[in-house]
Amino acid sequence: MTSRFTELAVDCRDPERLATFWCEALDFKVIDQGEGTVEIGSWVPTAEAVRDRQMPPTLLFLQVPEGKSVKNRLHLDISPIDCSTDEEVTRLLALGASRIDVGQGPDRSWVVMADPEGNEFCVLRSLDG
Q1: Is 2 domain-assigned?
Q2: How confident is the model over 13-19, as a mean pLDDT?
Q3: Buried-most residue among 2, 50, 89, 100 (CB within 10 A)?
Q4: How far lies 113's CA from each of 75, 94, 105, in Å?
């Protein structure tokens, strides 16, 4: 017996806003939506596909009443695939992200950012050739 990593749930105040940001950031699509929830992904999961092999997890944004109050204990790392890290950071800033300092220091090969609700994520080195 085994399990599969199928979803990463993110508590937030505005699921639609975060889903829109992350869809633009990752080229994902909304695959399910309900009252106070939005699920996005690069594919539409089926039980057969998930049983067959490990597939990329989806992101599930769940509305909660409280805002973010402390540094995340879990965060996403993303890698640009067709531009430089600096170009991707500029694009993400235009989408509503911000640069943040979590004590990472100035001489790092990655950039620490926050999504529109303050959830930390890192932009790693580019995979563009």
Answers
A1: no
A2: 97
A3: 89
A4: 10, 12, 13
Beta bridge partners of 58: 7
- Say how many domains are in the chain: 2
In which domain, by residue range, is 80 found? 76-123
- Given pLDDT bands bounded at 50, 70 and 90, which one contains residue 70? confident
Q: List pLDDT tens digits, range 77-92.
A: 999 999 999 999 999 9
Query: 104 and 81: one domain?
Result: yes
How far apart are alpha carbons 13 and 71 in whole angstroms?
16
Alpha carbon 25 to chain centroid distance? 8
Residue that wins the pLDDT comparison between 71 and 37? 37
Q: In what order do the strands lie in the sheet with 98-99?
A: 76-78, 120-123, 111-114, 98-99
Q: Return the CATH number at 28.
A: 3.30.720
Distance (Å, whole) CA 97 – CA 44: 26
